[in-house]
Amino acid sequence: MAAFTSIRTALFGGEVPLLAPDLPTLLGVPVARTAADLKGADVAIIGIPHGASASPGRLASEWSDYGKAIDQMRLQSLRYGGFLPDYEIDVFEHLKVVDWGNVAVPKDDPNRAIEDVVGRVAEALEAGCRVIAVGGCVPLANYAVAKGAARATKGKLGTISLDAHGDCLDRLSAAVPRDVPGAGTWQRRLWEHCQNVDPAMHVEIGMRGPRNVREMVETYRRNGGRLVPAASVKRWGMANVIAEAFPQAFAGAARTWFSLCMDVLDIGAVPDWGDEPLGLSAFEVTEAVHEAGKRGVDVMAMHFVPPDSPAGQRLACYMLVHLMAGWVMHDRARAGKRA
Q: What mean pLDDT is predicted for residues 81-98?
């Protein structure tokens, strides 16, 4: 059994909790082995170790290893604690966070895999937790997470999506049955399969480049969603985009979820990885994540986390701690209003 040291155990003592003999928890938080262990927790972390098949212009080998990123990220995360000098907040002084391990992903039964993620996310929300899901690729790390949030939510589910590409096409390939959620289509399938996911409460930020097509832009606008391309973020500033666009995903929503595809980052934002040029900076994306937390977002689905990229995985850890700091600030504001 491997012995791990984190920044927190080095400073304050104790042991790093393990999900497996050679696998620590994300950020060294306590383990949740079963749903019963979620009792009293504020945040449940769920790993989705799922790669993806080929898509137009991309070989299967480009995506197949993405499922291993979550466990690599757990190892990288031990260098971090929960304190942010930016806000003078230690998130672990305010939030009980648990790592509920990875969802099993049967390779020969994609429908069961989707349902396993849906059930895990719904169960965590019904236990009173906020959810952080880290993966992985479509459809498990985004569509299935949102479907789980929709199942656990009686009212409307609002959406904030940061992505280089608009995944709202009706069809991407004639070889894939229309009803199957996949690359380029999973948002459209989500709107069709979950009646409480309202496309008019959808905010799409960061689209850019010639891998997109006109149908995507027209679909968001026709449905009443809010589209802010990457170039508009650069012109207006992320703070102004947040103030103007985020309310559309929260107003009238019983819950709101955040879909963060790491390809929204500029190709130069992560030294050892990159997908598309002319994207958002690490600061801009982290700002959006933090502000979503401050507004009370309920579910974070972080997907397309790069494998074999220490820099990309460390940035993902930064984003999650900033998200949780936002949650702490949100909870403080709510407590102040009640007082």
A: 98
